[in-house]
Structure formats: C-alpha cells, structure tokens
Amino acid sequence: LVKSKEMINFLESGIYRFISNFTFMDPVRVLNASDYTQFRVSHSVYYNRFFECEDKEKTRVSTSSKKRKRKERKPYTLNERERSADQRHQEAKPLLLKAHEVLLGAKDLLHCISNLKSDGGDDDSCCSNGIRESCIEDGKKQSFVELGSVWQAPLYEISINHREENMTTADSGSSLGVSRLVPAFNNLVMNESCDDVEAKILNNRYVLPGNSCFFMSDLKQIHDLIPADTDSGFNLIVIDPPWENGSARQKSLYPTLPNRYFLSLPIKQLTHTKGALVALWVTNREKLRTFVEKELFPLWGVSYSAIFYWLKVKADGSLINELDLFHHRPYECLLLGYCHGEKMNTELTSTYKHLEENQVIISVPGEYSRKPPVGKLLMDYLPGTGPARCIELFAREMFAGWTSWGNEPLHFQEVSYFVNR
Ligand code: SAM
C-alpha cells in the first residue's frame, strides 16, 4: 500500500495534519520523536484506558443513554448559566462534527489508530529489560503530593545518573555513570544533557528528558520560579489548573483548588520581555469560562485570542461520549491569549502572530486528565523571534527543552511509563 504524505509525516512525528484546521495527534509518537533518545514512552501503558475499557465503556454509555431517555421525558428548562453553556456548545458543534467526519474519512489513519496500543511491541521490551516488572513488584507509585507535604520534604534528594559516553566496563560493555544528588523539592532540578537520563528518589526511578527541568513545589513556593530578569522569562506558558470539579474530587486523583487561588499565579512575572503566548486548559463549566474571561485573563494581563478544541476519540475513531451529553462532553477547550511582559513596550505587540481560531486537535486520551502535548502545535505562534522558552504550570510530566512546575511534575516520568529503546 502506498502511504499518503500525511501518513508518512504522522508515522514520523505523531501529528497528522488534515487540510483544514484539524489535526490528529498520537502523543506517544510526538514524545518519542523529539523528547527521548535512550527510552521510549510505552504505547501500551499510555493507551491503557480507552482500548481495554471498550466493553465497559459501551455498557456505561448504553445504560446512561437509557437513563437519559428516561430523563428526557421530564420537561426541563435550562437555567441561565446552562443556556449560555449550551449556546457555546451549539456554536462549537458544527466544527467538531466536521472534524470528526474528516477523521472518519481518513481510512489509513483510522486503521493506524485501532493499533495504537500495540505499536512498537512494548510489552516484550518491558519484560526483557525488567523495568516494568520491578515497578509492578514495588506495588504502588510514589505520591509526590504526600511526600512533599511532610516535614522531611526538604531532606529528600533526587540522584541523577548521567551516562559517561567514553567509559564502559570491559566485561559487560554497559555504560558507567556519574550520579549527582540534589534536593528533590523546592529546587530547580535540571537535566542539562541532550539525552534523557534516569533519576532516583527513594527507591523509585524516573526518566528525565534531555535539556529539561522541573521545580516540584506547592503553589505557595511558585514565586521562587520568577526569573531575575525578564529576558530569562518564558514565551510559552501552558497551564492546566486543578480546577474544582466533582470528577477529580470523587476519584481523589489529585488535590483541587478554588478558583481564587489561580488569581495569584505570577503570569506577568514569568513572561518574557517580548511577551508570552498563554494557553489555559478549561473544563466546560460555564461558571469557570465566565471566571476566566471576566476575572482571570484580565488580572493576568492576557488578551484572549483564540480557542482550540481537544476532541477525544476511542480506538475505533468514535467519540468517547455523545457530543450532546451535557456534563460529559467528548471535548475540552484550550483558551489562548498573549500576555505583555511587565516592562513591555506596546510596540512589541506587533510581533504577536495571528492565532488561527477554531483548531481541533483529535486524540485518544491517556490517563485521567492527561492532556495531549500541544507544545509542538503552538511553536509557530510564539511572540518575538527568539528561541522557544516554555513552561508548563501544574505539570505532571516533563518535555525536552521545557520547565515543568507543579506538586507532581514527575508523575508520568516514572519508569513504568517507558521502555528501553
Ligand atoms: N496537565 C496535567 C497532565 O496533562 O497530566 C494535569 C494537571 S492536573 C489538572 C492539576 C495538577 O495540579 C495535579 O498534578 C495536582 O496535583 C496539581 N496541584 C493541585 N494543587 C496544587 C498546589 N497547591 N500546588 C501545586 N500543584 C497543585
């Protein structure tokens, strides 16, 4: 079979660009294409959720649609907030339906999506290098939220194991390494080498991408991240706040915070002299959208520019929920805007790029609340002409060339999410 140009690009980069503003993304390919040299993100672990739960999902959707049918009989009038939410949804709906139709028309891509979980034969390599086995034996994963909240937190150290290129043991041929010990919390921990390296906290192992760094702390310490001069600030700031919502709380997957806490995020102080593109993940709650538009963006100094939609599909290309399901929409929104630096001269705003409205990014979701790595799609829109300086706030993973801040930025860096190359 002859592969299309789009398909060849997708297999290399993880990004399939349709002619319009629609993109399909395989986050695992995206990360493996640029962030890792020694390890690979495991497809089978990343895609655990929407491949194996297919039957459970079907039962859930069919029972919930029965319930809905029952509910639909009752006359129900939407309140004002629900009407506004519905209006936003109705505006977005034709675009989302079009994007989904375009995906369903790309047969070669659909075939590839149905095999995403088994791509790369990850299971074999995991078993052979023993990494996954050792993690399973260890039982549960480290909770950094708990570890960081105890009095001993300042004493915990992370050891970073750099491989020494020219040193190999004569008998085994394996690389020798040098370890560096640094505080794990409230400290900017960097992997300055170009390659990904392994690191250890207590007995748990993590993979740090090349040229990446993390600062693991509570919101109270975020001011320690503010650069001494604005030329060292960031021109891309991605934020995925722990918004309060029933789902995260019920599943107690991570602590959430009331909206007013996010007003104190030092976005202006983190912004580069020439400005920053700010990308904020929001849920579909109307109250939250109003809060962001009326209070949060104005206080941060962010001028709203565009919205991108993340449309979530299953392995067979179908939407993870019906599009009209009120509280469980199969999409989330990324609000984008530009922030003027604190000392910024208004003439510099002419270096802002035109953000194309209404882009739709389609992917099969990974674990709960894990967002696709949108950084690559945003690079063209950074203000100024300088190199990309990127930070993610409330991060649970790391990217090559980025700074990750949050109370658990190493969460998805644990070795069980990876296989050896
Ligand atoms: N973007 C992430 C991803 O794709 O996996 C998900 C981020 S999740 C929505 C929000 C994160 O904020 C969680 O890791 C949570 O533990 C963290 N968080 C909650 N309260 C915090 C606090 N007070 N300080 C720092 N981080 C906090």
Strand and helix layout:
Elements: H1 5-13, E1 15-17, E2 22-25, H2 27-34, E3 39-41, H3 43-46, H4 48-52, H5 54-73, H6 80-105, H7 107-114, H8 122-129, H9 131-138, H10 144-147, E4 157-168, E5 175-183, E6 188-191, E7 197-201, E8 204-208, E9 212-216, E10 236-239, H11 246-251, H12 267-270, E11 276-282, H13 286-300, E12 302-312, E13 331-339, E14 359-363, H14 375-378, E15 390-393, E16 402-406, E17 418-420
Parallel strand pairs: 2-14, 9-16, 10-11, 10-15, 12-14, 15-16
Antiparallel strand pairs: 1-2, 3-17, 4-5, 4-7, 6-9, 7-8, 11-13, 12-13
This protein binds S-adenosylmethionine.
Residues 145, 218-219, 240, 242, 254-255, 257, 369-371, 394-396, 406-408 line the site of S-adenosylmethionine (SAM).
Q: What percentage of amino acids are in beta strands?
A: 15-25%
Within the largest sheet, what's the order of strands?
1-2-14-12-13-11-10-15-16-9-6
Shape: globular
Main β-sheet description: 11 strands, mixed
Can you give the helix content as a percent range?
25-40%
Mean pLDDT equals: 86
Our count of helices gives 14
Describe this structure in words.
- It is globular, with a radius of gyration of 22 Å.
- A hairpin with a 6-residue loop joins strand 4 and strand 5 (175-183).
- The protein is an alpha/beta fold.
- The two termini are 28 Å apart.
- The strands form three sheets. Strands 1-2-14-12-13-11-10-15-16-9-6 form an eleven-stranded mixed sheet. The chain has a four-stranded antiparallel sheet with strand order 5-4-7-8, with no helix packed on it.
- The protein is built from 14 helices and 17 strands.
- Helix 1 (5-13) crosses helix 2.
- The protein has helices at residues 5-13, 27-34, 43-46, 48-52, 54-73, 80-105, 107-114, 122-129, 131-138, 144-147, 246-251, 267-270, 286-300, 375-378, and strands spanning 15-17, 22-25, 39-41, 157-168, 175-183, 188-191, 197-201, 204-208, 212-216, 236-239, 276-282, 302-312, 331-339, 359-363, 390-393, 402-406, 418-420.
- S-adenosylmethionine binds next to loops.
